[in-house]
């Protein structure tokens, strides 16, 4: 089946200009008494406008790409799938490939996007500023339905698929973004027929899509993200109504208190991120590295989230606000902003150090597997890092990325040191962080199609397998020390 992306109608009254000349548009919109948005096709002109004008400029291509990705995500919650495919020939294709890497890869992951077309000029545009964050792999092919379908089938077949007894699996998400609709729709129809399990979306302009605002999109992203949590873990916004298990959950089905809480966080997203040293104002060139917030930055964002939520009696709300703080930059990027660090700041650890930390995590896993006689019953208990599947390597990176959140939850932070001292967690702190580690791991498994994993169960039911989570927490100080970083109390 071929999908044509269409966004929901925006209730906000806005006026759109489609200017022929940059200077003329600035003069006309400067004196407008209405909330005004200036609409351009390309992203580069939009960036230039937003640096020098108080009137908001929007990129048509960006708006359509955001709406398309929300309607047909490149990765699913309930199944593992091959890397997404973009069939394209111009700026629209470049923008949707970029937006996938900016907004849809998880921290610590490196997304691959397969780009299919007659030439690679648009792929070169997509790669700009993102070469350290994603792989844009080009396959040259004539733009005929059979030729594109053949290459797409080959790309899907080459995917290193996880074992079917451990993962639910499906085909790739495919976007057809061609300037000629008479070419796009036959190709999309052929792909939907030929590529097993695929979700095919043909992109077209839609006035409703162009009226979407980042704040409105962020409201839906916050709701969607909250709905992915295990059902036994309440969200920071309260209990969600799932409409008899239908997905995605709907905002209008939630209680007034839940709707108000989500809307409050979306409205305050800028100040919340600013509390963690992240800016979203205007349009900014994408940084080459994803933002990886430190413990004190996460604490600042957590406190800012709590400040806009109604006070409640739930003692776990600060922790859930902290977990939202770790994901908020990604959700904001999906909604159309480009979050970037305040000038003069940087991630504590580089991408290379993150990779080293992930390998140390696996070494710790091998050790506890030996000590428990492989209590988790996993074949990875005897596999070196290079023998792990791509999925299991990403799982170790996801664990590494969560280290700052665990330190923040314990009232700790980190700093560079030539001679790091080793912090030792108090027993009650170790137990609490170990339970949080299991909650994070379970969420990661569910997000990658493993909701039925035998250990995706509540903490108190794990028995001896709890030792894996305790080992993961105990390993944090010595692993960081190998990178020249020590764990210390917040000053």
Q: Which oligomeric state applies?
A: single chain
Helicity, as a percent range: 40-55%
From the N-terminal CA to the C-terminal CA, the straight-line distance is 58 Å
Strand order of the largest sheet: 1-9-8-5-6-7
pLDDT < 50 runs, ≥5 residues: 1-29, 49-53
Structural class: alpha/beta
Strand coverage percent: 5-15%
Number of helices: 19
Number of strands: 13
Radius of gyration based on Cα positions: 23 Å
Mean pLDDT: 83
Q: Sum up the overall morphology in one term.
A: globular
Largest beta-sheet characterization: 6 strands, parallel
Question: Please, could you describe this protein's structure?
Answer:
This protein is an alpha/beta fold and 491 residues long. The protein is 46% helix and 11% strand. The strands form four sheets. A six-stranded parallel sheet has the order 1-9-8-5-6-7, with helices on both faces. Helix 2 links the parallel strand 3 (36-40) and strand 4. Helix 9 (214-227) packs across helix 10 (256-267). The chain is globular. Mean pLDDT is 83; it is low at 1-29 and 49-53.
């Amino acid at each position: 089946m071929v999908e044509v992306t269409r966004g929901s109608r925006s209730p906000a009254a806005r006026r759109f200009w489609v200017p022929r000349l940059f200077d003329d548009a600035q003069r006309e919109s400067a004196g407008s008494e209405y909330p005004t948005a200036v609409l351009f096709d390309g992203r580069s002109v939009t960036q230039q406008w937003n640096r020098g004008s108080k009137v908001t400029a929007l990129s048509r291509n960006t708006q359509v790409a955001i709406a398309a990705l929300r309607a047909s995500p490149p990765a699913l919650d309930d199944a593992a799938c091959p890397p997404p495919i973009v069939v394209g020939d111009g700026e629209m294709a470049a923008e949707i490939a970029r937006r996938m890497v900016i907004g849809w890869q998880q921290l610590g992951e490196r997304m691959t996007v397969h780009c299919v077309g007659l030439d690679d000029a648009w792929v070169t545009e997509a790669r700009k500023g993102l070469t350290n964050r994603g792989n844009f792999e080009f396959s040259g092919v004539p733009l005929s339905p059979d030729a594109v379908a053949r290459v797409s089938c080959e790309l899907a077949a080459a995917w290193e698929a996880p074992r079917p007894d451990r993962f639910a699996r499906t085909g790739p998400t495919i976007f057809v973004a061609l300037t000629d609709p008479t070419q796009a729709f036959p190709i999309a129809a052929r792909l939907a027929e030929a590529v097993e399990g695929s979700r095919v979306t043909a992109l077209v302009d839609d006035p409703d899509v162009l009226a979407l605002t980042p704040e409105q999109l962020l409201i839906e992203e916050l709701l969607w993200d909250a709905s992915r949590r295990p059902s036994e873990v309440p969200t920071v916004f309260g209990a969600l109504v799932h409409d008899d298990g239908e997905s995605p959950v709907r905002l209008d089905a939630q209680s007034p208190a839940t709707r108000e809480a989500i809307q409050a966080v979306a409205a305050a997203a800028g100040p919340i991120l600013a509390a963690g040293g992240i800016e979203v104002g205007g349009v900014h060139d994408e940084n080459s590295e994803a933002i990886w917030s430190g413990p004190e930055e996460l604490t600042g964002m957590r406190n800012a989230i709590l400040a806009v939520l109604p006070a409640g009696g739930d003692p776990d709300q600060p922790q859930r606000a902290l977990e939202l703080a770790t994901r908020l930059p990604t959700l904001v990027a999906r909604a159309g902003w480009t979050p970037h660090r305040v000038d003069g700041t940087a991630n504590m650890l580089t991408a290379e150090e993150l990779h080293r930390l992930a390998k140390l995590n696996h070494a710790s896993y091998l050790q506890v597997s030996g000590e428990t006689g492989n209590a988790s019953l996993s074949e990875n208990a005897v596999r070196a890092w290079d023998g792990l599947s791509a999925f299991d390597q990403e799982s170790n990176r996801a664990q590494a990325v969560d280290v700052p959140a665990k330190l923040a939850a314990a009232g700790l932070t980190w700093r560079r040191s030539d001679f790091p001292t080793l912090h030792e967690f108090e027993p009650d702190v170790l137990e609490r962080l170990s339970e949080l580690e299991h909650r994070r791991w379970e969420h990661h498994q569910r997000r990658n199609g493993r909701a039925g994993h035998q250990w995706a169960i509540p903490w108190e039911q794990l028995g001896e397998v709890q030792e894996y989570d305790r080992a993961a927490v105990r390993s944090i100080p010595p692993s960081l020390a190998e990178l020249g970083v020590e764990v210390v109390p917040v000053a």
